[in-house]
From TrEMBL:
<protein>
    <recommendedName>
        <fullName>4a-hydroxytetrahydrobiopterin dehydratase</fullName>
        <ecNumber>4.2.1.96</ecNumber>
    </recommendedName>
</protein>
<dbReference type="Pfam" id="PF01329">
    <property type="entry name" value="Pterin_4a"/>
</dbReference>
<dbReference type="GO" id="GO:0008124">
    <property type="term" value="F:4-alpha-hydroxytetrahydrobiopterin dehydratase activity"/>
</dbReference>
<comment type="similarity">
    <text>Belongs to the pterin-4-alpha-carbinolamine dehydratase family.</text>
</comment>
<keyword id="KW-0456">Lyase</keyword>
<dbReference type="InterPro" id="IPR001533">
    <property type="entry name" value="Pterin_deHydtase"/>
</dbReference>
<dbReference type="GO" id="GO:0006729">
    <property type="term" value="P:tetrahydrobiopterin biosynthetic process"/>
</dbReference>
<dbReference type="InterPro" id="IPR036428">
    <property type="entry name" value="PCD_sf"/>
</dbReference>
Length: 143
């Protein structure tokens, strides 16, 4: 077995391994191309809750929105996402609107679109516990 096979695993393994366990790959100038729009929608199926959208400039990005209990909960969600982003070296655009609406947008600015790194990062953000930050469900009195 070749050394490169030992480093990467068997051919095709990357398609079987979930995105959340993969690492973002640093993009060197010209080494990465944006994923095609059709591929972006296929990869989006692996990151529930995220939407593929077009920016005002017409490039693709991933977006997820959360409603949190309070302003402090929004800041805490920023902190949790920030820790994952720093570990991966891939940083989303984070927004806090009103006092309890948080959104994250992912794209790879250096290539002007979406890369596989954006989907890996979205999967890692999905793994962050957020239930303690979200509003508690109100009890229902009738069905």
């Amino acid at each position: 077995m070749s050394d490169s096979c030992l480093e990467r695993g068997p051919k095709g393994l990357e398609r079987l391994v979930g995105l959340a366990v993969r690492k973002c790959i640093p993009c060197a100038e010209g080494s990465m191309q944006p994923v095609a729009e059709s591929d972006a929608y296929k990869l989006r199926n692996q990151v529930p809750g995220w939407r593929v959208e077009k920016t005002e400039e017409g490039t693709l990005c991933l977006r997820q929105d959360w409603t949190v209990r309070s302003f402090q909960s929004g800041v805490e969600l920023f902190k949790r996402i920030g820790e994952v982003a720093e570990a991966e070296g891939h940083h989303p655009d984070l927004h806090l609107e009103g006092y309890n609406k948080v959104s994250a947008e992912l794209s790879t600015h250096s290539i002007g679109g979406l890369s596989e790194n954006d989907f890996i990062m979205a999967a890692k953000i999905n793994a962050i516990p957020v239930a303690d930050l979200q509003p508690k469900a109100k009890p229902r009195f009738w069905a």
